[in-house]
Write the structure tokens for this entry.
Amino acid sequence: MIVDYHIHLQPDRHVGRCKYNLENLDDYIRQATLAGVQEIGITEHCNRFRQFMPVFEPVMGKEESVPAVDQWIRETCTEDLDDYVQFLHKAKELGYPIKVSIEVDFIPTEAHRIGEILADYDFDYVLGSVHFVGAWAVDYSREIGWPHKSVDDVFEQYCNTVLEAVESGLFDCIGHPDLVKKFGHVPSRDMRPCYERLAVAMRKSSVAYEVSTAGLFKPVGEIYPSREFVQTMHDFGVPFVLSSDAHSAEEVGREFQRSLALVREAGYREIAVFEGRKLTATPL
Ligand SMILES: [Zn+2]
Ligand SMILES: [Zn+2]
């Protein structure tokens, strides 16, 4: 079974009404079929929805905040989560091979609030992603924030925030677990102990992670997460899903043969699929 469990229905820069309509979804399904993907998970970014606006307060307007990110959150926070979830459920009932999901920023101080929002909706899985270390969006630009920081410390903080996300119990799957490498920074410290702590926590709470080809198209030019990360997760029995982090239909399932080679070399023979927030392992 091949799934693509990280899909956005329009580019990040899209402002105004989101493309939650069947014509747009048809384009994504067509591309999925061409790419050999049997099921796609729609994971719209939570900042698109008014309900999540208060969750972003701790990262907005702070000394470390990236003004362009603040502006993006303010400009895009226009949709109603009810409409989005209803649209996806309706499409699923019509037979579209989709899962109902959302990509949620993990902002540690707001865990309780995030839990309250999520509790009102029927998702097949919730994808938890760390984009912020403190109020700083680590993935925005190599020039903003990075030059003033220790790369080792940022990698460690990023990994610890992902660990907190896993332990929060809010998420079924972790998105791009080593996004922090996006611009090609390399820590001098051995990250394996951190990955092992993560693997133990994920195994314990039955949380999966995604193997995402998005990193291949970023300055780092590498799948998220690294081979070492994937091997550690495999050795601790942590399940994975495949994803592209597509922001347009033509990106669905792209370069999946590279991810498949990586997970097979690590020893995986099964992939995780989700339904009603339950994980099932299915042969690859
Ligand atoms: Zn993301
Ligand atoms: Zn995404």
Summary: Residues 164 and 276 are 23 Å apart (CA to CA).
